Amino acid sequence: AVNLKGKSFLKLLDFSPREIRYLLDLARDLKRAKYAGNEAKMMEGKNVVLLFQKDSTRTRCAFEVGALDQGAHVTYLGPSGSQFGKKESVADTARVLGRMYDGIEFRGYKQSDVEALAKYSGVPVWNGLTDEWHPTQILADLLTIEECKGKLKGLKFVFAGDARNNMGNSLMVGCAKMGMHFAAAAPKELWPDAELISKCKELAKDSGGSVEMIDDMAKACKDADVIYTDVWVSMGEAPEAWEKRIKALKPFQVDMKAIKVAKSDVIFMHCLPAFHDLNTEVAQDIHKKFGLSEMEVTNEVFESKHSIVFEEAENRLHTIKAVMVATIGK
Ligand code: CP
Ligand code: NVA
């Protein structure tokens, strides 16, 4: 049987398809129980701390609500206000938090920091996003796809945009492990690391899936079951990156043309937050500088019947809860 007690959740590469399946099934059960009003509390008496170097809406709220639903107590340490990163090192912070808390969530820049937290704290550490990986997001995405399509195996999944970022990397691994056909729709310079691509091709061989890189949006999206995108510039990247990215990725914007070449029941997904209109400060700023009013996805697609982005966002809660229950629950 699968047993994840005491384990950290740092990146999907550390988990077997069976373990990922276990987490998805547990998330589905927890979601049902919450809806039915009979959720059993598996984390009573536990304390968890959420350590954020970067901003967050979904991830923070999912950890907080998930822990509270399960009877645990939560401390939030934001990008400012703790000693972490300024006066105190990762290793020292880890040894302090590990003595007070049963589990630690970390969102930050370096993957090596989340790995060090796990090493020095001695308690399960959950990666809430680093520059390299965003593993809890992928669990929510897989659960959402399965809810919509009834399966994962054999589905054609397209990731359009910056395929080198945390989402591109993590989705490629998740799809490869779960027997899906992953295609990155991106210009060559934004394909994932060659080494990671070949690793994922190996994984896909075992699972019956496949991994492809395609420098052409229409070709990549042909007959897709899922089209996924993410911001063109990620948290922590220099604002100067925008100009180059817009040039490189404009042909890979998810618009109705992409939806039309896909399967008629294609679903559109996005981890959010998304640039699909001018209703944010950052979008207005970019509009002023570069003239674009929609970026990685058009508002038409974002608001269309194909879009399941808010179901996907809700599933952050159920899947993150599953990760906590599986690793520190009774
Ligand atoms: N998708 C996601 O991680 O969102 P937040 O940045 O709001 O946590
Ligand atoms: N690639 C994005 C994901 C946000 C959830 C970022 O890192 O900013």
From TrEMBL:
<protein>
    <recommendedName>
        <fullName>Ornithine carbamoyltransferase</fullName>
        <ecNumber>2.1.3.3</ecNumber>
    </recommendedName>
</protein>
<comment type="function">
    <text>Reversibly catalyzes the transfer of the carbamoyl group from carbamoyl phosphate (CP) to the N(epsilon) atom of ornithine (ORN) to produce L-citrulline.</text>
</comment>
<dbReference type="GO" id="GO:0004585">
    <property type="term" value="F:ornithine carbamoyltransferase activity"/>
</dbReference>
<feature type="binding site">
    <location>
        <position position="230"/>
    </location>
    <ligand>
        <name>L-ornithine</name>
    </ligand>
</feature>
<dbReference type="Pfam" id="PF00185">
    <property type="entry name" value="OTCace"/>
</dbReference>
<feature type="binding site">
    <location>
        <begin position="56"/>
        <end position="59"/>
    </location>
    <ligand>
        <name>carbamoyl phosphate</name>
    </ligand>
</feature>
<dbReference type="InterPro" id="IPR024904">
    <property type="entry name" value="OTCase_ArgI"/>
</dbReference>
<feature type="domain" description="Aspartate/ornithine carbamoyltransferase Asp/Orn-binding">
    <location>
        <begin position="153"/>
        <end position="326"/>
    </location>
</feature>
<comment type="similarity">
    <text>Belongs to the aspartate/ornithine carbamoyltransferase superfamily. OTCase family.</text>
</comment>
<dbReference type="InterPro" id="IPR006132">
    <property type="entry name" value="Asp/Orn_carbamoyltranf_P-bd"/>
</dbReference>
<keyword id="KW-0808">Transferase</keyword>
<dbReference type="GO" id="GO:0016597">
    <property type="term" value="F:amino acid binding"/>
</dbReference>
<feature type="binding site">
    <location>
        <position position="316"/>
    </location>
    <ligand>
        <name>carbamoyl phosphate</name>
    </ligand>
</feature>
<feature type="binding site">
    <location>
        <position position="83"/>
    </location>
    <ligand>
        <name>carbamoyl phosphate</name>
    </ligand>
</feature>
<feature type="binding site">
    <location>
        <position position="166"/>
    </location>
    <ligand>
        <name>L-ornithine</name>
    </ligand>
</feature>
<dbReference type="InterPro" id="IPR002292">
    <property type="entry name" value="Orn/put_carbamltrans"/>
</dbReference>
<dbReference type="GO" id="GO:0019240">
    <property type="term" value="P:citrulline biosynthetic process"/>
</dbReference>
<dbReference type="InterPro" id="IPR006130">
    <property type="entry name" value="Asp/Orn_carbamoylTrfase"/>
</dbReference>
<feature type="binding site">
    <location>
        <position position="107"/>
    </location>
    <ligand>
        <name>carbamoyl phosphate</name>
    </ligand>
</feature>
<dbReference type="GO" id="GO:0042450">
    <property type="term" value="P:L-arginine biosynthetic process via ornithine"/>
</dbReference>
<feature type="domain" description="Aspartate/ornithine carbamoyltransferase carbamoyl-P binding">
    <location>
        <begin position="7"/>
        <end position="147"/>
    </location>
</feature>
<dbReference type="InterPro" id="IPR036901">
    <property type="entry name" value="Asp/Orn_carbamoylTrfase_sf"/>
</dbReference>
<feature type="binding site">
    <location>
        <begin position="271"/>
        <end position="272"/>
    </location>
    <ligand>
        <name>carbamoyl phosphate</name>
    </ligand>
</feature>
<dbReference type="GO" id="GO:0005737">
    <property type="term" value="C:cytoplasm"/>
</dbReference>
<dbReference type="Pfam" id="PF02729">
    <property type="entry name" value="OTCace_N"/>
</dbReference>
<feature type="binding site">
    <location>
        <begin position="134"/>
        <end position="137"/>
    </location>
    <ligand>
        <name>carbamoyl phosphate</name>
    </ligand>
</feature>
<dbReference type="InterPro" id="IPR006131">
    <property type="entry name" value="Asp_carbamoyltransf_Asp/Orn-bd"/>
</dbReference>
<keyword id="KW-0963">Cytoplasm</keyword>
<feature type="binding site">
    <location>
        <begin position="234"/>
        <end position="235"/>
    </location>
    <ligand>
        <name>L-ornithine</name>
    </ligand>
</feature>
